[in-house]
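FW: tagging you since you asked about this chain on Friday. Here's the raw sequence from the shared folder, copied in full. Didn't touch anything.
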Amino acid sequence: MAEIKMQTFMSSVLRVIEHPIFKFAIPAIVGVIAVIVLHKLASHIRLEDVKADVAAARPTVLLAALACTVMSFVGIATYDFLGMRTVAPKRLPALVPMVTGAAGYAISGLLGVSYLTGTAVRYRVYSAFGLDLVTITAIVAIAWSGFVSALVLGFGLLLALHPTGLSAVINFSPAFETAIGSALLTCWGVYLVWLSLGKRRLKSGGKTVDLPRPVQAVGLTLAGLLDVSGAGLTLYILMPADLVPSLPVFATVFIAAIGLGILSHAPGGLGAFEATIIAGFGATGRSDVLAALLLYRLIYTVLPFAVATLGLAISAAMANRGRLKTTSSVLWRAMKPVVPIVSAALAMLAGVILLVSGNLPAEGTRLEILRDIFPLGVVEASHLAGSLAGALLIVIAAGLYRKLFRAWLFAMALIGIGFVVSLVKGLDWVEAMSMAATLVTLGLLRPAFYRAEGISLFQLDRRWMLSVLVMAGAIFWIGLFAYHHVDYRNALWWQFSWNGDASRFLRASLVVAIVLVAVFVNSLISHRPAVNKPTKIPDAVRRLVKESEDTEANIALTGDKLFLVSEDETAFIAYADTGKSLIAKGDPVGNPKSGQALIWALREQAYRAGKRVAFYSVSAAYLPTYLDLGLSILKIGEVARVDLLGFTLDGSKRKDLRQARNRALRDGFVFEVVPASDTEPILPQLRRISDAWLAQKHGEEKGFSLGAFTEDYMRFFDIAILRHPDGQIIAFANMFRGANRRELSLDLMRYLPDAPHFAMDALFGELLLWGAAENYRWASLGAAPFAGVENRELAPLWNRTGGFIYEHGEHFYRFEGLRAYKEKFDPVWSPNYLACPGGLAAPQILYEVNVLVSGGLRGLMK
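HL: got it, structure written out here
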């Protein structure tokens, strides 16, 4: 059985994506080169010729291209269906994974960065149906295996058979071609044989998921062939018959164009894809090729997205009226989590339509009609307003993605403006109807936008900035292409006439450029304000801590944290501001829905301040939300909990505790739990014990994730004490008590240097027995750092590093000894995670956490 660590698969993907070279430099270079190359390749083509070629497309050709698109999306839908059948059979109706896979690709095809957006769609949908992180990751991985298998098999066959004409694209010797093709086919065959030799599984901690059986793997490969073949044939059918020498040559150029389109990060690979196709087939100056590419965009990219959006809008309308039947209700439940992504893509598409329309000449006959209705100034202003609305819609799309209500209001207003100016600037009925349809659709999706945080709608992260930049460049090229026959002169800027399309294009482009530059500068300017000082603990936080069943909520009362409290005071997040990062300690405390909103609010607060956000020592409860934020999930250890139901100190594993307790009883030591209301008289004694203990350890008080002895902090808790027969307190521990007697745990455990060696074991043993007698369900023993992070050859870098530290770091910290000690109590172990940005952010965040815990750099060094 193959045991592959899967829980940080998505973290590894996100870390690669977050690398600065991958995120900005390469896509920017590819995008700029693509626009320049596209401009040179199409410099001798007239817009009128492209329009004529589009109008001349035969209906049979368009229907055939549509059929190939359907074939491709059938393959895409099959990926997730087979992945679900393999990993989680009968967990969901078959329609859910099929619709999720197809809709996710339709959305990502328009937004771009398909490997991220499509995965985000899957996480949102499947987590809404209760699937855990490991299962969802396995479905995504298996779906991708079908695509990769199809490429391996397809290229293997092409190279092994080396059909006529392929050498024009891949200039290898026939023998070398055959060798590479045979190697690829062998790899695919070995993969199937390996799957057939035994039941292969993916394993993560206590969770195990199956790999596909050989028959399912073949099915996934066939689905991949349908996907790739359908996409390629859609364009192949639309291309001029005299241009493409053979289908294998076309397939090679087509796959290269897709790859460069993905690298450009532009939505749908706009610009890079077209430039590669034109250059690959030597189609410079061919208007019919540009027409084919335009039709391909409409049929394979825009139409599937429109179908997905229409289905979502209809489902939303039916859900609002309570008219959903069983099947449609399930589909609405599946698609509801992706409403923000669809809305962002819809706003972006509406913006692109307005910008492209503003860059193209108006229809002459329609302008003649407008002469009798509006003065020239109104038409000129409408043209500028339409382009400005288009640019702002593209920017506002990021706010829709974040579910901001203000973004929805702004988008509705901008689309309304787009509807009006589409008619006023050129009587463009098609454009106006598209704006009206977008307006109605976004109106139906209104309930999805509920966040009211104060983050600016005109601040973009680097990913959005890059997409907008490349897309704006491609749209600007469309205007250059439309007016390349016009001689540029300064007078064009000030030429106002009914036929001054080129002048309107220049003025609109300048306005759009100014707006985008302002947005980019606003997004890039970040300052590092002074670190926020911890404030007084709000009454709502104290109340929610008492109501929480999780004892870790008590660590919020240390007095060294800031708080983000929901407006209805049903949840809070405790966090620290390091100057570079906002780091939350643990999951939100309180109502889960309010807690989810607070996670986003903290992310947006960090975004406004130009800082990172991280969530330290969190459980699996909110992992889908952290993933929605684009954070990486790293395992940092495990938490041990002892079942107190019928707990005793019997058995060989607990012999040391039993003997220590018995020795304390024989010698007259007394165990006592002092209620919080009665701790004031004993605080001076506890202070002396604590100071002596710290002096012996040559340490300083800790913080953030650990308690520290202060009178204000200790007054919150019941104190367990061990008294000497003479009445002196020699050891103590403050107790965290969960609501409803769900959980009990200890924070500070300190003793006098001259206390008997058995004092702390006796105190600990008495506490566990006391908790069992008080009917507490669990006793938390706290976390074991890096426990369960295995150092395996196939594990991600983080796991290998953490596993190495756990196995070989005993000189600095008793990692293995700590877990071994806690293992004596036969605890239930649960994973402990860090959610943070990818790349090098993880070690930086952990360093900042250690500084917070140690009370500053001086404490950390000590």
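FW: Residues 345 and 373 are 35 Å apart (CA to CA).
HL: agreed, and Confidence is low (pLDDT under 50) at residues 1-22, 527-531, 787-815, 856-862.
FW: great, closing this out.
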